[in-house]
Amino acid sequence: MGLIPVIQSQLMPPPVKDSFMRRAALHKKLASIPRYPLTLLHARAGYGKSTALTLFAHDIHQDSCWYSISPNDDDIIPFLTKLVHAIKAKFPSFGKKVQAELEELQTQISDEQLWSLISMFGNETVELKTPIVVILDDYHHVQKSMVIEKWMKHFLEYIPSNLHLVISSRRKPSWGILTSMKVKAELLEISQDDLVLSMEEIKHLLEDIYEISIDAHDLQRIHQLTEGWAIAVHMLVSNLHSSELAGSFLDNRSDTLQDLFDFLALEVLSKQPFAIQDFLLRTSILEELAPDVCDALLENGKAELILQKLSEQNVFIQEIDGSRYRYHALFKEFLQNRLRREREADFAELNRNAARFFEGKDTENALYHYLQVGEYEYGAKVISLHGLELLQKGKLQTLLDYLKPIPEKLKSEYPFLWFYQGEISRLRSSYEWAEACYQRAVDSGEQMGDDYLASIALEGIARIYLDTIQPDKAERVLQKAITLRENVNGSKEEMAKLYHLLSENLLNSGQAVKAEKWYKRAESLNLPLEEGNLKARIYLRTGRLDKARDLLLKKKSRNADFEGSHLSQSHRETDILLSIIEAFRGSPEDSKKFAEQGMKLGMDIQSPFVEACGWMRMGHAVQLIERYESFLAEKCYKTSLDIMDHIDVPRGKAEPYMGLCILLGKQGQYEKAIEAGQKGLYETEKVKDVWLSTLIQLCMGIAAVYCEKYESAYEVLVEARNQFEGCGDRYGMMLASFWKAFIYYETGREDSFNNEMRQFLNELQVGEYHYFLTRRTTFGPADIQNFVPLLVKAQKNNIHSPFISEMGLGVMDNHPGYTLKIQTLGKFRLQLGNRFVSESGWQRGKAKELFEFFMTNKNKLVDREEIFREIWPDQDEDSANRSFKVSLNSLLKTIEPHRKAREESYFIRRNGSFYGVNPDAVYQLDTVLFEEWVTEGLGEKDPYQAKELLERGLKLYEGDYLPDHRFADWCLTERERLQVIFLRGAEMLAQVSVRLSDFETCIHWCERILMEEDTWEEAYRLLMYCYYQKNNRPQAIKWYNKCKKVLSAELGVEPMEPTKAMYKMITEAAELDMW
Asked: The Bacterial transcriptional activator domain covers which part of the protein (predicted)?
């Protein structure tokens, strides 16, 4: 971004003049500014807005920051730059992060960058930790800028509590938020009615400031004539003596106030000597008056003296700083109109002379004066030479205003104007017109032999294709732009940007290998690249996950001190990328953490796209975390899809559809899974993203495997494997090989299995993807025990035996290939991997009871005779033995349906006459998880962490242990032990919730406790306290009475002293309330 010049006089209020009048009613209103987040001062020119604010700024007893906005500030970058400097003038530490980002911006900023700057500006304001008044005078100069208006509207939604913003404008802003601010008493509005001078104020002005005596009739006539318009009153009285008041001024019959002003201005002008009249008229063409430009126009060398004299006489001229002045807007307009009407030739020649004076010194002033008099060719020449400066300063609206009147014929003679027109249109998303303008510049460049012009215009066209996701078109155009730029020996900086653009475009189209080559060419120029995590994305899309992760973590660590200084990079955000990498690597908790940070960032910078990316990555993480139900992942994906629909970014819907495809496949919903996959493919194929398309195809293949549609899965996986190879993604190739090997194993195709398994293990070792075998990953099997039988078979077939032995995964003789998942609390349910075992699947009821008995005694082997006594107490030994053998056989067939005859069971171990659960077997038992999490929560000191752990554990306690065996002795002890753990955990959770003032949660768990054990007195006490805190004393007393009744009936005792004390406190408080 080019340097934005900051004129210090814009950042300070004008000096107070003797003629300024302090008005009691208006002053009282202005004094309340520090009580409101926003003050709006709006009225037409000449009503004294700036005067009133000048007096306020000088009188206020706290630091106020002033910014006089000029017409040249009508683009967001100069506007924000000067606003930051206005605050820095009083608070030097302010704005470092905002300034750094503004300096990095290129010409125009995106919506996401705009939101980021709003967040950053607000945060830096809060960090000042002191009330601050910021005055924006003449805001009407920038009201036509849509970007500034958008920034202001959204900034006001989140205006910091220590900021008091004052906006003065000729027009009231039309921001929707103003209504709600007014309702909430957050807006102070000072309108034209507040600024109109009353008759008493006019009298004070005349008699006390101008020392003119006036009778009541004349005073009333002045008030009636001027309607309290401050500038008209000042003009009227400043040039009169009291004897003249009854003359022509008071007899004026002007139809409008503007007519009155013109009449008064003519009187002011006619009272000046001829030389001064001439000076006033001829210099009226200037926006600002400085001695050097005035002397150049008038050629008399007396400008400095005349300007000082006019300022002293208060002839509607305002001093900007020691040597620069400006006419009041209305007076300037009057003078200019008169000059144009009466001396048209002088008006044109003066503008031409002024333009020549400013050429090479002040581009904008030069252009203004040329275009004022229709000198379009000169204007076109200046724009051609200096338009880039305006673009680099972010002055898009200014440059567009200068380009609009230039005829097309002249734009073709000066074809850089077509390029500038294209740049502005592209940055404002008018892509069709932008491309037409760029093409005109390309054609002109080719005709004139100007390779540089043709190259930069082609780069503009390529950026359109990048913005609109047309990578195939962008590649051709970029290649041509690079060739032309190399022909003219383009600078290193320019070449690095072009190489970088081509690299990103290739990556987006799935050509990561070619993308990396171009990225290295950009890197070889040894220039800093604003890369948007491009290198990490190349690593991700070529399967180098660890490298991508390390690079991003280092970047995150380096940038830890600059978290507030942040512009959105959409899907390239560091946390968003880290989240998907961690999901691919099988680290779901880290993936969840980074997804949460990404979502928070999206909300902080008000970037819905980034927030949606966070939601889809959260879906990937939740799928891999056992404690979450599958509907939560589905909810994450659907939230992401809803946001993408809302912001109309269809390409962003591909990844959540991919996640849904796998999720639905795991649930056995094949048709829905394929439908989700096809919806995702539709979006990726539209934008020709081969890599993401291939990932979605892989997911469709995995979904088919889960639903045992092996033939369909195989066809998809073969194609995916080939496409991953084309993309250069070794991780994807490894994934496709694994699932092909899995299909071969399941379908008994041994030769094909051996070949594919060898390929899979080769790629796994070369890519160092060892975690794929030991953790649940996004594209791996839902049950990692699925790997074991494949590895066992591979080792038997001497495929990478040393590696399998080293991993410790092939040492057993057999393995069923899934995890047993057992629920015993509240009801009994068994899953073999993802498949539930129905009641009929047990064949014999005693087989199920025998399994439950083994799980109850999971930590030991039990003698056969003891089993007989507990399970078949009414049978003799021989009968019990026969029943045991039949039930055991039925049990083994149920939990290991594919076990071969006479092959040892993986889950059940026999040692002589002792039987039980194999301690080396992998299974998931709800009581184990319940006890672990509750015990951890009981010992946790941090209340928030304790609450999370306890809730996680207690959620598993759906009821008594093995409720179908309520009267069986063999599970009674375990049932009572687990119930005590539940009661202790629920009591602790209730207590922690009270500490956190979460009374609803406390009430819920106390009621759960009493459902399990109605004599648990601490639960009654906590319920009484919660309802007392909720100001529901009758309910608190009701719980005490219930406690008293239950304890008496069940145990024959009174409540304990702490419970009675609680009751006394509640009743006494109730009595006090009655008074």
From this structure: 925-1067
- Non-local CB neighbours of 700 within 8 Å, separated by 6+ positions: 661, 673, 674, 677, 678, 716
Residues 6+ apart with CB under 8 A from 261: 46, 229, 231, 232, 235, 330, 334
Show which of 890, 921, 952 is a domain's final residue: 921
pLDDT tens readout for residues 907-943: 999 999 999 999 888 889 999 999 999 999 999 988 8
Residue 314, pLDDT above cutoff 80: no
pLDDT at 1072: 42
Q: Which residues of 619-642 are buried (b: 16+ CB within 10 A; e: fewer)?
A: bbbbbbeeeeeeeebbebbebbbe
Please check whether residues 872 and 984 belong to one and the same domain. Answer: no
Note whether residue 656 is domain-resident: no
Determine, yes or no, domain membership for 1023: yes
26, pLDDT greater than 80: yes
CATH number, domain with residue 490: 1.25.40.10
Q: What is the pLDDT of residues 939-951, one digit of tens each?
A: 998 888 899 899 9
What does the alpha-carbon distance between residue 735 and residue 184 come to, in Å, rounded to a whole number?
58
Q: Check which CATH number belongs to the domain holding 42 and give it.
A: 3.40.50
Same domain, 917 and 932: no
Structure tokens belonging to residue 96:
């470092």
Relative to beta strand 829-832, strand 835-836 is: antiparallel
Beta-sheet pairing, 829-832 with 64-68: unpaired
Pair 864, 947 in one domain: no
The identity of residue 993, as a single letter, is S
Q: pLDDT of 409-466, one tens digit each?
A: 999 999 999 999 999 888 776 778 999 999 999 999 999 999 999 999 999 999 888 8
DSSP character at residue 1056? P
pLDDT at 585 over 60: yes
Do 945 and 1037 share a domain, yes or no?
yes
38 φ/ψ angles, rounded to the nearest 5 degrees: -135, 135
Residues 6 or more apart in contact with residue 1043 via CB below 8 angstroms: 1017, 1020, 1021, 1024, 1055, 1059
Which residues does 786 contact at the CB level (< 8 Å), separation at least 6? 742, 817, 818, 833
Strand partners, 820: 832, 923
pLDDT at 244: 47
Phi, psi of 162 (to 5 degrees): -95, 5
Please check whether residues 930 and 916 belong to one and the same domain: no
Among candidate residues 533, 461, 528, 548, the one with its CA nearest the CA of residue 503:
533
Q: 3-state class of 290 per DSSP? A: coil
Which of 195, 221, 246 is a domain's end point?
Answer: 195
Residue 111: pLDDT above 70?
no
The pLDDT value given to residue 264? 63
In a domain, 568, yes or no: yes
| 107 and 163 both lie in a single domain | yes
What is the SS3 assignment for 68? Answer: strand
Give the closest residue to 777 by CA, choosing from 705, 700, 699, 711: 699
Q: What confidence category does residue 531 fall into, taking pLDDT thresholds of 50, 70 and 90?
A: low
CA 368 to chain centroid, in Å, comes to 40
If asked whether residues 434 and 475 sit together in one domain, one would say: yes
Domain region containing 847: 820-921
> CA separation (Å) from 323 to 32, 275, 293, 304, 319?
35, 21, 12, 8, 8
Tell me how many domains the chain contains. Answer: 6
Q: Report d(CA 673, CA 600) in Å as an integer.
A: 30
Tell me, what's the pLDDT at 448? 93
> Is 801 within the bounds of a domain?
no
CATH number of the domain bearing residue 628? 1.25.40
- Of 373 and 530, the structure prediction assigns the larger pLDDT to 373
Q: Does one domain contain both 156 and 20?
A: yes
Task: Give the C-alpha separation, 304 to 278, whole Å.
Answer: 15
Q: How far apart are CA 775 and CA 626, in angstroms?
A: 12
